[in-house]
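Example 9 (inverse folding). The structure is encoded as follows.
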């Protein structure tokens, strides 16, 4: 067994990333702009930009790119419209049930039950 493995500094690929501390990550990250101090980056919710994706994107026409962006925004607006329609229907159902409950309670109070 090597001394690096005994001391725990072995950079073996099976070692978990969270336990591996980078010596450059010891400084404060407040107001450091443009530097990559953390070895683990945050998640992006866009398509992974690899070389194959870039090559496919460059092979497209301007019309196809505009169609892609347009369809992406249409899909977002459609999802927003459907969610707002569901929320409106839920609100309407709750108000109608509250009105029915109020009428039944009022009738029971007037009948002195």
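The amino acid assigned to each position is listed next.
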């Amino acid at each position: 067994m090597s001394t690096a493995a005994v001391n725990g500094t072995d950079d073996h690929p099976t070692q978990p990333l969270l336990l591996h501390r980078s010596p450059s990550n010891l400084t404060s990250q407040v107001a450091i702009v443009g530097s990559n101090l953390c070895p683990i980056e945050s998640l992006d919710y866009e398509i992974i930009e690899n070389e194959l994706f870039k090559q496919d994107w460059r092979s497209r026409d301007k019309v196809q790119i505009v169609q892609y962006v347009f369809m992406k925004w249409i899909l977002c607006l459609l999802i927003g419209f459907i969610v707002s329609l569901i929320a409106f229907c839920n609100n309407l159902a709750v108000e109608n049930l509250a009105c029915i409950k109020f009428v039944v309670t009022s009738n029971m109070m007037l009948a002195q039950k």
